[in-house]
Design goal:
The protein is an alpha+beta fold. Helices cover 55% and strands 15% of the residues. The chain has a five-stranded mixed β-sheet with strand order 2-4-5-7-6, covered by helices on one side. The longest helix has 53 residues. The relative contact order is 0.09. The model has no long low-confidence stretch (mean pLDDT 85).
């Protein structure tokens, strides 16, 4: 600490005695807070590493259980178990991506990505849930490609799709299509005919742990999915827009940035 204070002292002009005491006191406080901040950063990194290790440990038995489910002969029982497995898998997946969110800049790879394979893969992953509720999909050709990170984009789509399925009535349909806006940016639309979102909830649906009026009526709602999706989207330059009314379903739109917008985002 003495060296730290000496450096501050050398950088100053001659001071009066009371000023000298003041600056030394302030220097000592700054040094103490700097040490505390560094210790907090180390502790946060250790906690993050431990949490990631735990998530990876949990994923191994989840994979094993999923394989075992294929051998359950009772179809009704299998579907119930698959649904419970999917709920657990989605929660673990959320925790994994939440832990990685603070370092997403080091964990993304921007490249040309086809939308169709990503959308279809996420739909297939939730097939058991959709079969149980009788939910179908009306999917456009989705021939467009966008410049983004495929893994993080899949996570965003997963959160929106899981919400659409969760809050849609039985025997309903989710519609997915794309178009270009006036600036030629690609828009990906995901529309459900579910219970919708109250107008007073719309400005806050992307806030952490906010479940809204509907969420309070469901023990399955954590309020984390849309919060994480929104924060990931921001870091990728994707804008998420929502239109919804109670009883009329919700329309989520992802706007992918243009090439020049990506350049501003990444500084390249």
């Amino acid at each position: 600490m003495e060296n730290y204070l000496d450096e501050i002292h050398k950088s100053r002009l001659a001071l009066l005695p009371f000023q000298e005491v003041y600056f030394r006191k302030m220097g000592a406080i700054f040094y103490e807070k700097k040490v505390e901040l560094n210790q907090a950063k180390v502790q946060l990194q250790e906690y993050s590493d431990e949490l990631l290790a735990w998530v990876h440990e949990v994923k191994a038995p989840l994979t094993a259980i999923n394989l075992m489910l294929e051998h359950v002969e009772d179809l009704e029982l299998r579907r119930k178990l698959e649904n419970e497995w999917l709920r657990l898998h989605l929660l673990v997946d959320q925790q994994l991506h939440q832990t990685r969110l603070h370092s997403i800049e080091k964990d993304n790879y921007l490249t040309e990505v086809e939308l169709k394979p990503i959308i279809y893969k996420e739909i297939r992953a939730m097939q058991a849930w959709c079969i149980e509720k009788g939910i179908g999909f009306d999917v456009d050709n989705l021939t467009e490609t966008v410049l983004t990170d495929s893994k993080w984009l899949a996570f965003i789509v997963r959160q929106i799709l899981s919400n659409a399925i969760k809050y849609s009535p039985a025997d309903s349909e989710i519609i997915i299509w794309t178009e270009a806006d006036a600036t030629e940016a690609i828009l990906l639309h995901i529309k459900d005919t579910g219970i919708g979102i109250a107008s007073e909830d719309l400005p806050r649906i992307f806030q952490k742990s906010y479940t809204g009026i509907i969420g309070r009526e469901s023990t399955q709602s954590t309020g984390m999915g849309l919060y994480l999706a929104y924060n990931v989207a921001q870091k990728l330059g994707i804008r998420i827009h929502v239109q919804s009314k109670i009883g009329e379903g919700s329309l989520f739109t992802l706007r992918f940035p243009l090439q020049n917008e990506y350049a501003k985002l990444t500084g390249r």
